[in-house]
Write a structure and sequence with these properties.
Glutaredoxin, globular, alpha/beta, 15 helices, TIM Barrel, 2 domains, single chain, five-stranded mixed sheet
């Protein structure tokens, strides 16, 4: 007979046949807990597993012996014992033996000196990552107590989704975006990611990246090396010769390709998509038509940069490789071409006609539209300081574009088309950190109520980011993304624009505060957050 090794932390052996438990007496448990003795009946449990299933004691009724392994994901002792645990499971893996692991911890129950020894927190998400990293083949159940946060006097809402993000844009002018060294861009991008998360935007859909910065940023965020929102990473814009992605005139004899990938013909388009896939991109961004202010004689809104064949090839190749497609499409013609080709995210849609609206309505279950009007509004507010005169073609052009956008968005809203919050932030006149202005624009220009604007930023943004609808609302079983706010945005949507009103941000169950203060520690334990909330009550 093999000896059964008792490992640290704790193994509990249960004889299934007699439903008896073998355990050492426990001391100091809270009221309501019972100390087990030899011969006591094993208590039943009903716990979620990292595989998405619920488990109870009866699920392990087949084998003669059940070994219950209590472990913690943050604990260096648990990590040190892992080799022996896996050997133990392999040695005793037969029909008379079963093994299950349970994580009974949560972060608020740990001392500060217990953190920092590993890369894992005591959360359900990190329990899942922990088991995957070690290659566990047995059930791993989570019994961490719920974190109780006293948010009375504050407004609690789902985390917002920035649906037209340019995290690698560094608050430069449009013609300067690809001229900074990639090293400088990366440093500023890390700062931008932190600012976006601290502003209450826990997820972001990229609408284009300089170089390959987004893909590396996403990796850093997921690995815990960078603070930032959950990210669908974009790549360099795909555009045709003379498109809005073709920034630099030929006479300049420059070949700067940090922002745009200039492609002509189906095979060049296909190769560009394959290159982006190779670089780890989630979202392919394509410039379908142009801009009122275009450099180097670039195309204008309504002038299509690609043939139907080219765009259909692009979308098909992207979807084949598991990527989604976002587009710059200001005109009705561009929107119609995008919808017919199967584009997922349409940016702008300023000038809709009846046919474009009908097409969008028929595809409203799969297509999302983000007007991204911050550029136009800010330009019109400050055009004189940019060197433009009242009545100039640029001034009149953007005024007309904003008016057309108001009409188009109101029609989409009435047709039940999901309109997303996301404002093209990251340019010199739309700097990072001003993302919440977009919600104000939805109320002031499009006739949304504050609640509808919040829904566009949370529920609909979540549906765009995760088609399984696990993101964007406060419901049991959904991803724990929340923002705790001083003031009530349902009464005054502008409270979200003041960083001092963002008391805390919760992403994946992890609590952050002070992200916009470079002197402040960011990751907060629940008791620390309760202190923060108590120190800054809602007026």
């Amino acid at each position: 007979m093999r000896l059964i090794k008792i490992l640290a932390p704790t193994l509990l052996l249960i004889s299934i046949a007699s439903t008896s438990a073998f355990a050492v007496d426990a001391k100091g448990l809270p009221d309501g807990f019972t100390t087990l003795h030899i011969g006591d009946s094993a208590p039943n449990f009903n716990l979620p597993g990292i595989d998405g299933k619920q488990y109870s004691l009866s699920d392990f009724a087949g084998p003669d012996i059940l070994v219950v392994y209590f472990t913690g994901t943050h604990c260096p002792t648990s990590h040190g014992a892992m080799g022996r645990v896996l050997e133990f499971v392999e040695d005793f893996q037969d029909e008379s033996f079963a093994f299950v692991a349970i994580n009974p911890n949560h972060s608020s129950g740990l001392r500060p000196d217990e953190f920092g020894h590993t890369d894992y927190d005591e959360t359900f998400a990190d329990s899942k990552r922990y088991a995957e990293d070690y290659g566990w083949t047995f059930p791993f159940l989570f019994d961490g107590d719920a974190q109780v946060i006293d948010g009375r006097g504050h407004f609690v809402m789902p985390g917002m989704v920035e649906s037209h993000a340019h995290l690698s844009y560094t608050d430069n002018g449009p013609l300067e975006l690809d001229k900074s060294p990639v090293e400088e861009v990366m440093i500023k991008t890390i700062r931008n990611a932190r600012v976006m998360l601290g502003s209450g935007f826990t997820s972001a859909i990229s609408f284009g990246s300089v170089h390959r910065v987004d893909a590396f940023l996403k990796r850093g965020i997921e690995c815990g090396d960078v603070l930032g929102p959950r990210l669908l990473a974009g790549g360099r814009d795909i555009g045709s010769t003379g498109s809005n992605a073709d920034l630099h005139p030929d006479y300049a004899q420059l070949k700067i390709d940090g922002l745009g990938m200039i492609t002509d013909g189906p095979w060049e388009v296909r190769k560009a998509v394959r290159t982006l896939s190779k670089n780890g991109v989630d979202v392919v961004k394509v410039m379908i038509d142009g801009e009122l202010i275009s450099s180097g004689g670039g195309i204008k809104p309504g002038v299509l940069g690609f043939t139907d064949e080219e765009l259909e090839v692009l979308v098909a190749e992207a979807h084949h490789r598991g990527m989604r497609v976002a587009c710059h499409a200001r005109s009705a013609a561009a929107v119609k071409q995008a919808v017919k080709a199967g584009v997922n995210f349409i940016g702008h849609a300023n000038y809709l006609d009846d046919d474009a609206l009908t097409l969008l309505e028929a595809n409203r279950d799969r297509v999302f539209v983000g007007p991204a009007v911050a550029w136009e509004i800010t330009f019109l507010e400050h055009y004189q300081s940019f060197g433009f005169e009242t009545g100039s073609p640029e001034h009149e052009g953007y005024a007309a574009e904003l008016e057309a956008t108001q009409t188009s968005v109101k029609r989409m809203r009435e047709a039940g088309i999901r309109v997303l919050v996301g404002g093209d932030y990251g340019l010199n006149i739309t700097p990072h950190g001003t993302y919440a202005k977009e919600l104000q624009y939805f109320t002031d220009y499009f006739g949304f109520s504050p609640g509808e604007a919040l829904q566009a930023a949370t529920k609909h943004g979540g549906e765009a980011f995760m088609p399984d609808s696990s993101l964007g609302t406060l419901e049991a079983g959904k991803i724990a993304d929340m923002v705790i706010v001083k003031g009530n945005p349902l009464e005054q949507i502008s409270v979200l624009q003041d960083a001092d009103n963002i008391t805390a941000v919760i992403k994946d169950g992890k609590i952050y505060a002070g992200l916009l203060d470079s002197r402040s520690p960011h990751h907060k334990r629940p008791e620390e957050l309760n202190h923060v909330l108590g120190a800054s009550p809602c007026n």
